[in-house]
Structure to design on (203 residues):
């Protein structure tokens, strides 16, 4: 596959964000030797994922990779399925919640670098593998504003619909960008995507 080709060409760094709760044992067993070979070649591996179940059958293999030099962190909210190869290209799942939607390869450097920036900002929010994790939640007002902005409404339209001022809308968005350490609304949407999706499923 194209993903395998890109990974085989890596020389320096392998960055991954993974929102999936688990992998099949077969997939882990198949990819573990590849990761070990990458580490032997001096390729840095960093992976950010949601916390795995304590009874995760793949825990031993992950521990082996950590001992070999791979770095894993966990966060309660991982915004997207992303693999970044040597900061020169990226592979992104089209729909973080639906693997059947497929993947898209991105080679545009400004976009790749924006994804690298997003990765490290999310990485800094994560905890070491099997460490403590931080809760993620929005206030009712923040949730309402983010959902309306996410549908394409302008700040003015959002303000009118919620009966608040445009300045309040702008302030809330700016505050969220600072809290999630992202630089623009596009990155904020990616960062909040899984949280909003989980709220929709539970409502």
């Amino acid at each position: 596959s194209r993903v395998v080709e890109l990974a085989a060409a890596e020389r320096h760094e392998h960055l991954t964000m993974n929102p999936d709760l688990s992998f099949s044992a077969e997939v882990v067993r198949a990819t573990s030797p590849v990761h070990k070979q990458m580490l032997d070649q001096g390729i840095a591996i960093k992976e950010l994922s949601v916390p795995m179940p304590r009874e995760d059958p793949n825990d031993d293999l992950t521990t082996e990779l950590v001992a070999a030099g791979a770095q894993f962190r966990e966060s309660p909210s991982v915004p997207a399925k992303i693999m970044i190869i040597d900061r020169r290209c990226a592979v992104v799942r089209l729909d973080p919640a639906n693997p059947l939607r497929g993947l898209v390869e991105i080679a545009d450097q400004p976009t790749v670098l924006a994804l690298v920036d997003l990765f490290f900002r999310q990485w800094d929010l994560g905890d070491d593998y099997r460490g403590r994790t931080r809760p993620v939640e929005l206030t009712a007002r923040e949730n309402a504003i983010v959902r309306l902005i996410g549908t394409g409404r302008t700040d003015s339209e959002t303000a009118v619909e919620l009966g608040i001022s445009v300045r309040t809308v702008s302030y809330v968005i700016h505050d969220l960008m600072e809290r999630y350490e992202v630089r623009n609304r596009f990155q904020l949407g990616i960062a909040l995507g899984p949280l909003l999706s989980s709220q929709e499923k539970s409502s």
Notes: Confidence is low (pLDDT under 50) at residues 131-135. Residues 185-202 form the longest helix (18 residues). The two ends are 38 Å apart (CA to CA).
